[in-house]
Write a structure and sequence with these properties.
This protein is mainly beta and about 180 residues long. The chain is about 10% helix and about 55% strand.
Length: about 180
């Protein structure tokens, strides 16, 4: 699988079931959510703002997208929701590697830059270092409509794990009757 195929395959609405282990609190959490991933054009105003924020030439980007989520956790009565724009920048010498600009980070709600690579067996790995922690995510497809995601939040030195989660995500298929 090529990186562009991975990003294109991710577009759509996903129903996600995530189990999270918050090691610092000795707590287990279950989260059910809908995740919408929509393709954006490279000249979309928000994409251009993310490029400007990170001082990146928009000509170097590919397949930008917006991810929006809404869900509920058994740990909190308040609904969970959010949105962020993500902008991939493939490495010119090795297109299976690159950077992923984020409007808002995963582990800290600040603009972030992660490093990604896509392995030969189709596993997308994203490593993002923040001020206080580091996040590692791995995503792979079992088939075009089922994907899995494993995430870890580590201490900033990378030696301790504070949170670990596993998600299974099923694409919502629209049924059309004609």
């Amino acid at each position: 699988m090529e990186i562009n195929e991975f990003f294109e395959l991710s577009i759509g609405r996903w129903r996600s079931q995530r189990s999270g282990h918050h090691l610092a609190f000795a707590h287990f959490e279950e989260v059910l959510s809908n995740i919408d991933i929509e393709s954006l054009s490279t000249d979309d105003q928000t994409v251009l703002e993310v490029c400007k924020l990170h001082d990146i030439d928009p000509a170097s980007i590919t397949h930008p997208f917006r991810m929006t989520w809404e869900g509920e956790s058994d740990w909190d009565d308040k609904p969970i929701s959010g949105s962020t724009v993500l902008v991939p920048i493939p490495d010119i010498e090795n297109p299976s590697r690159g950077k992923l600009l984020r409007e808002n980070g995963y582990a800290e709600v600040v603009p972030a830059v992660g490093r990604y690579h896509l392995s030969d067996d189709g596993v997308f790995t994203l490593l993002t270092e923040y001020d206080l922690v580091a996040a590692e995510e791995r995503i792979w497809f079992a088939n075009p409509n089922l994907r899995f995601r494993v995430s870890m939040i580590k201490t900033s030195d990378g030696k301790g794990v504070t949170t670990a989660s596993f998600s299974s995500e099923i694409r919502s298929l629209s049924s059309s009757t004609s």
